[in-house]
Amino acid sequence: MTDHLASLAEAAPRLAQGLSVTVQLTIFGALLAFAIAVVLGLMAGSSSLWLRGPARVVIEFFRGTSLVVQLFFYFFVLPQLGVDLHPMVCGVLGLGLNYGAYGAEVVRGSINSVPAGQWEATIALSLSPAQRIRRVIFPQAWALMIPSLTNLLVHLMKGTAIVSAITLADFTFHLDQLRRVTSTMFSYAAVGLIGYFVLALVLTGIMAMLETHAKHKLGQGRSLRAILSPAPTVAAPGGGAA
Amino acid sequence: MTPLPAALDWDWESAFESLPSLLSAFLQVTLLVTVLSTALAAVLGLVIAMTLRLAPRPVAGVVRWIAHFIRMTPIVVQLLFAYYAFLELEPLTIGVLVFGIHYSTYMSEVYRAGIDSVPAGQWEATTALSMSTRRTWTAVIIPQALRATVPALGNYAVSMFKDTPFLLVIGVVEMVNAGLIYGGNNFRYIEPITLVGVIFLLASYPTSLLISRLEKRLAYRT
């Protein structure tokens, strides 16, 4: 066991590098996925067939053809078509497009769940279509979609573990290096699975904070600052917002 | 400036040449793993859901945490771990077991929701009829709980199907790996990888449509 810990200490810088690749893929992949999800989700929820049709085709295509196939397409096929992408770009593109398509369904569903009265109110106030979405509908839909987006984010993070197949030295890649000098149990289970689990906990924690913030802005629940502040907050009499 | 690559044109010959190995990998590995792992996950998921409900609190707590842990960690790392930990087992067997166990933790949540959706009156009725615990579950609760869970289980089977390419990390020649092998031997990746994508789409999209139709039909009647 002490041998293993010594090997771990020796491998720590490389593991940290690998973890940084995994985290970068997760963050950039998630940002791209979110941008795509919002665009496709708004299009798929639109009443115009010219927006809805193409969005549906793109969503079903990227959901239906499997993440790994898409990654290999960017990595092996695009170079043969004259497009050479850095493996990191392949990874971010693959994760972003695939999970963006899943996220689009979440965005569309959440926008649909905003009560019809809210839409009617925006029309009564003669807000422009962009203002309706940006100022009224999206903030409410955003609070609704966070739990499902959290699930997708964890899926995306777990999906990054395949990228060593496209030559990226991520966390999983360095776990195999560690396994050669320690044991399967130590490298894959103790370091690997627990490492990814902690990463997942951090991601879900951040998303929980985003949800609290989004709900507070809608007048539901306490603000993030009130919850995180070290001083105990005294509940306002009558239950008003603190 | 690189000239327009010759490979830009789609070569039907390579497409037809690679197709048999892709289809045989699809039938013998991809589909086989999906079916066996779905069956395993469906049974194990129900066992987990019932353990969470019936077992003493500390046991249920431990099971809940293990399930949570499996759900929150990559299946790729789980496959690699199981592969090196049980070198005496066939990689395909490892694949079926890991996929089955991984997805059982998702399916247990579906069952839990299904069991929770059975009206309280049904439980009261079984008590009033003094049914045994066994009869209560097998004759009253599970049949009603299952009805609500079929579409969700189907959706997980489809996602498992699309996750099967992860098996290539332990050397299983499923469809994507078969495509890569063809590509490596002939230095043409366009046709096999595109075909693999097309086969995935052709298999998963109609299945998803069927499941969502089933979902609507079951929803109307209940």
UniProtKB/TrEMBL annotation, chain A:
Residue intervals of the ABC transmembrane type-1 domain: 19-207
Pfam families linked to this entry: BPD_transp_1
Transport found in the keyword field: yes
Transmembrane segments: 23-45, 57-77, 152-173, 185-210
Bilayer topology: Multi-pass membrane protein
Keyword Transport: yes
Signal sequence range: none
Domain of life from the UniProt record: Bacteria
Compartments it resides in: Cell membrane
InterPro entries listed in its UniProt record: AA_ABC_transptr_permease_3TM, ArtM/GltK/GlnP/TcyL/YhdX-like, Ectoine_EhuC, MetI-like, MetI-like_sf
Keywords tagged on the record: Amino-acid transport, Cell membrane, Membrane, Transmembrane, Transmembrane helix, Transport
Family: Belongs to the binding-protein-dependent transport system permease family.
NCBIfam families attached to this UniProt entry: ectoine_ehuC (TIGR03004), HEQRo_perm_3TM (TIGR01726)
Protein name (database record): Ectoine/hydroxyectoine ABC transporter permease subunit EhuC
Protein's organism: Zhihengliuella salsuginis
From TrEMBL, chain B:
SUPFAM superfamilies membership: MetI-like (SSF161098)
Keyword line: Amino-acid transport, Cell membrane, Membrane, Transmembrane, Transmembrane helix, Transport
Domain ABC transmembrane type-1, chain residue ranges per copy: 27-211
Mode of membrane association: Multi-pass membrane protein
Transmembrane segments: 25-50, 166-183, 189-211
Pfam families: BPD_transp_1
Record's keyword annotation contains Heme: no
Signal sequence segment: none
Domain of life from the UniProt record: Bacteria
Compartments (UniProt record): Cell membrane
Keyword hit for Transport: yes
Family to which the UniProt record says this protein belongs: Belongs to the binding-protein-dependent transport system permease family.
NCBIfam families (alphabetical): ectoine_ehuD, HEQRo_perm_3TM
Protein name according to UniProt: Ectoine/hydroxyectoine ABC transporter permease subunit EhuD
Naturally occurring in which organism (per UniProt): Zhihengliuella salsuginis
